[in-house]
Specification:
- The protein has about 260 residues and is of the alpha/beta class.
- Helices cover about 35% and strands about 10% of the residues.
- The protein has a five-stranded mixed β-sheet, covered by helices on one side.
- Helix 2 (about 70-80) packs antiparallel against helix 3 (about 90-105) and helix 7 (about 160-170) runs parallel beside helix 8 (about 210-220).
- The protein is extended and about 100 Å long.
């Protein structure tokens, strides 16, 4: 039949192609390019000023007593009300922050307490506390200095600011002064690049620093004198050295709300 003939013809054609292909195989042999393995040269590994592995100490172990104060327990209940009962774990970050503000840092017993409050395994809290550098898992000084070392601050003199702090306080990164007043740490971008170089002390930013103004700031804090937040060179906000050059008056319009 026609269908049988068609199938037979196709089969004969395919066999012919295969046979000829095998005969020509030596001449058509594909030469695979040689794979060259090149070693990757990397710069030296930079380690953070903190360790992410917990080590039990006399003042930081699972048996160290920790309780929120009565005032902070009221804040705990307020925080928990923000989340559905089935998602208490969403409160882990604000509760860690609350614990740190109570004692200045977060011992492992505080993490365990938060795990109990949020009804999760302690590991869920450990994962958060070790991921974010904003959580201090070791005691820090009264004034916690975080120096930004990212590119804009580095170009604008962050290394000089770091050297001034180290020389004045006689400590290295990750260390605390013997009187317990100052702890120094280098961190990544703090988001005040236009006012570089800058440092964050506790919750406050101090910007447009020089080695001289940095030392003066440390001395004022040490002796309890009032300090100026933000730029330390007298400028207002982020206004450049030429003053305000744009948006000096009301826009001519039409405004979006009028269109």
């Amino acid at each position: 039949t026609q269908s049988t003939w068609g199938i037979s013809s196709v089969g004969m054609f395919l066999r012919t192609v295969v046979n000829r292909g095998l005969a020509l195989a030596p001449a058509l042999r594909v030469v695979h390019p040689r794979v060259v393995h090149r070693p990757f040269h990397t710069s030296a590994v930079r380690f953070a000023d903190v360790t992410y592995q917990h080590e039990d100490t006399l003042d930081n172990n699972p048996d160290t007593p920790f309780e929120f104060t009565d005032e902070n327990y009221e804040k705990v209940h307020t925080i928990l009300k923000k989340y559905p009962k089935a998602f208490k774990q969403s409160a882990i970050m604000p509760l860690l922050d609350l614990a740190q503000r109570q004692v200045g840092w977060i011992p492992v017993s505080a993490m365990n307490k938060i795990a109990t409050i949020c009804e999760v395994q302690p590991m869920r809290v450990y994962e958060v506390a070790t991921f974010y550098t904003m959580f201090n898992r070791k005691p820090v000084g009264k004034y916690f200095i975080q120096l930004c070392g990212t590119t804009p601050c580095m170009i604008r003199g962050a290394e000089d600011i770091l050297q001034a702090i180290q020389n004045h306080l006689h400590i290295e990164k990750g260390e605390t002064t013997p009187d317990g007043l100052f702890t120094l740490m280098e961190v990544e971008c703090l988001g005040a690049c236009v006012n570089a170089p800058m440092i964050q002390i506790n919750d406050d930013f101090y910007e447009d620093l020089t080695p001289e103004t940095t030392v003066k700031l440390l001395e004022d804090l040490k002796h309890g004198r009032p300090v100026t937040l933000g730029p330390q060179n007298g400028r207002k906000g982020c206004i450049g050295p030429q003053g305000k050059t744009t948006l000096t008056g009301q826009p001519n319009g039409p405004c979006c709300r009028d269109l």
